[in-house]
Amino acid sequence: MAIPKYDELMPAVLAYVAEHGEVPWRTVEAPMAEEFGLTAEEVAKEYDSGNGTVFLDRVSWALSHLNMAGLIERPRRGVNQVTAHGREMLNKQPNDIRAYVKQRVTERDAQRKAEKQTDKALETVTLEGDQATPNELLLQAYEEIRSSVFDEILDTILRKTPTEFEKLVVKLLDRMGYGGEVKDAGEVTQASNDGGIDGIIKEDVLGLGRIHIQAKRYAKDNTVGREEIQKFVGALAVAQSNKGVFITTSRYSNGARRYAEELNGATNVVLIDGVQLAEFIYDFGLGMQSEQVVEIKKMDIDFWDGMQDQQQG
Question: Which fold has domain 6-115?
C-alpha cells in the first residue's frame, strides 16, 4: 500500500502511545509499519534529497501535531505519553481525532500570527493546493518546521530547573551580541539575594552600562500580568538601572504589554514571551544544530543577457 500521510497516522499513533505509556518516539515506527501493512522497502524508502526515510519522518510529524493539539505530552526529550484529553478523545471521539488536531493546530498558528510583530513576508502562508505557488508552499513548510521546533525548545526548557533557565537566558543575550566584546559579560545573580533581578549583562568593560534580566519559567498557557512587570520596574529602580529585559516561557497580558510600552524614557523594559524566546534560540543557534540545508537557485540575468541572442527570421 502507499505510505500513509502523517495525519492518517495520528489516530493509530495516539492509540499506541495510550496503550504503552511512556513511548520513545523512534519505537513507534515498527508497530505503525505493521499496523498499516507496509513492506520493508516502503519503510526504508528515503526522500530524494537523501535526508532520512519518509515513513519515520511522517511518524515524527504525527507525534508533533498530536503534541501541539494537547493529546500527547513529552515528559522528557524524545518520549511521549498520552494526556487525559487524548485518552478521552480515543474513548469518545476516535473518528474526530484528525479533524480536531487540524483545528487546534490552525487555531494555535493563527494566535501566534496575531501576536507576532515581525516582517509580514515571514507570515505563514495559508493557501493550499493549486492556490499556492511552489515558493509559498516551501515557505509554509519552513514555518511549520520552525513552529514544531519552537514547541520542542519550550517543552525542554520547562523540564529544566529555574536556575538553568536563568543561565540560558543570560547565554542567549550574550549570543545575541549584548555585552559586545566584554569577556564574561553575562552573570546570573545569587538566588538568595537577587532583589528581583535574575541576571546582569555588562555592556562595557568598566560595567558602567548594565542590562538587568528577570526570567520566569512558567507553563506555556500562563499569562504574565501587569503587576509582575511593575515589580520588575521597581527592582530596576532599586538597582539604579534603566534597562531591563523580562523573559518568560509563557505569554503577556495586553495590560502588561501596554504598561511596558508606556514607561517614560527613564526606564526601558523589553518583554520577550515564550514564542519569541524559542525563535531567538533557534535563529541565534543556541543549543541548536543544522539538520538540513535546501539551496534554491535562480538564473543570473546579467550572465545570460551577456550572451548574444540568435537573430530571428
Answer: Arc Repressor Mutant, subunit A (1.10.10)
